[in-house]
Amino acid sequence: MKGNLMRNIGLIARCAALYRDTHLEHIGISGYQAAYVLHICRRPGIAQDRLAQNLHVNRSSVTRQLALLEEKGFITRERCEADKRVLCVYPTKEMQAVLPEVQACFRQWREALTEGMQPAEIEIMEELLERLALRAEELQ
Length: 140
Hints:
Blueprint: H1 5-24, H2 34-42, E1 46-47, H3 48-55, H4 59-71, E2 75-79, E3 87-91, H5 93-113, H6 119-139
Antiparallel strand pairs: 1-3, 2-3
Helix pairs in contact: 1-5, 2-5, 3-4
């Protein structure tokens, strides 16, 4: 439907989260937490506040999700050496073990979503969405 950019972006994001919920449930990761897995594994020792900024979610959401991930044994949180007021987040071996499956889930969603599209169409769409994302960050 034309003229509903934000509705369509929101719909795709919600469907993606539901897809990840279904495909990652057996490893104890929710669709929402999957992004945390990718981010924490790429940046071991990331400060909790930096994680909130990078994921564009509020700090209370990050605190809640990290508590769940810690409870399940996927992360540890420690005081940062440079600043004892800051909590740094580290992946455990359990999180590192599920990382390939989480990455595959993201890849499978992308492939299923773009099935039937031409590579040039995908490239144009990704370029336009990247421009929108950068603009959205500027407006924060």
